[in-house]
Fold this sequence. Notes:
CATH architecture of the largest domain: 3-Layer(aba) Sandwich
Strand content: 15-25%
Largest sheet: 7 strands, parallel
Structural class: alpha/beta
Number of strands: 18
Number of helices: 14
CATH topology of the largest domain: Rossmann fold
Number of domains: 2
CATH superfamily of the largest domain: Phosphoglycerate kinase, N-terminal domain
Distance between the termini: 8 Å
Radius of gyration: 23 Å
Bound molecules: adenosine monophosphate
Shape: globular
Strand order of the largest sheet: 1-7-6-2-3-5-4
Amino acid sequence: MQQHIDSYDFTGKKAIVRVDFNVPLDENFNITDDTRICRAMPTLKKVLAGGGSLIIMSHLGRPKKVDAKFSLKHILGRVSECLGVQVQFADDCMKAAAQAAALKPGEALLLENLRYYAEEEGKPRGLAEDASDDEKKAAKAAVKASQKEFTKTLASYADCYINDAFGTAHRAHASTALIAEYFPNDKMFGYLMEGEINAIDNVLKNAQRPLTAIIGGSKVSSKLAVLKNLVGKVDNLIIGGGMGYTFIKAQGGKIGLSLHEDELIPDALEIMKEAKERGVNLSLSVATVCGQSFDNDTPRKIFPINDIPEDWEGMDAAPESLENWKKIILSSKTILWNGPVGVFELPNFAKGTLQIAEDLAEATKNGAYTLVGGGDSVAAVTQMGYADKVSYVSTGGGAMLEAIEGKELPGVAAIRG
Ligand code: AMP
């Protein structure tokens, strides 16, 4: 049975907590953005304040073997600072039993990178490129078998399990999902995880209407499942960014050199048809800021979105489109935003995306519920200083996308199940 972190009695208990400390490091292993560490603190502090001790586990980067570059030791100092206790370190996550057993209430132990072991992800490593199907199958079966031992060892360190790693909740890894079965009555979400789940529920399950989704980014193919799920749920679907041009081309528009995917045209037509049948207002860009090459200083010119000359490329939403979208945004009660409406990395083509961030902040001020997720959209609200002027900023890119595709995330299911 799932427990709640607020009512669970941590007195004298050891809690093993999966966090997402996969923070960016510079070449000298200094943390360049500690947001993920900070966001896990409420959960970690709650356990210590409740008289428990902590075994903290995470991955960092994508090591395929033990590799000092990816050691969690690099972040031990910062974690200790944030937590306000000197966190101990276990050099090998599989050999931490004695250290875990010796933990006293109020103490904390950070385990070395879980992904030093193939068993964390449950995927074979080091297979020869020309391995036969049988060899691949055997290697997969072997790692799956040893994954059980791996998971059991982690579980043996603690009395209860907390999952606070939303960023990896879409993965059925040992520490994010499988371990939960060893704590049938002592498993729970951390505060970050709970906040993320509630935010998504506020949009997909309990939305105040009108509900609007703004989906941007580069390709239809990477967000097809998202669009298909949302078109059955929202009142307004704004499609911007690179992916919009496939929809314009599908309608016979001239899009010049703009990004598009011909093979996705049937899907784009299907989404438009479904939107029409369901009475969903599907709003595409009407005018676009174009460039002649993919760089910041290329000449810029605005064209109607369906009449872009052959040697120009659509790179940002133009004011006319932004005005239409602003009206929709400000008349909505719930808004989900994922993906930039232009080439956000190039400052001359970031204006549209920054404008959406501003509109969302205004809508929030007027009482709408606003959820922002995805690298560039989060960067846009942060760059404008609006991160605390929207209702929720999601920390999990891939996990959030899978959730808005309508999938139940393995990390969530393992706690609830
Ligand atoms: P995604 O990861 O799918 O959210 O896509 C983000 C990427 O979409 C960013 O790197 C943007 O530069 C890119 N993008 C947005 N609009 C356009 C556009 N009109 N043309 C090319 N790339 C775009």
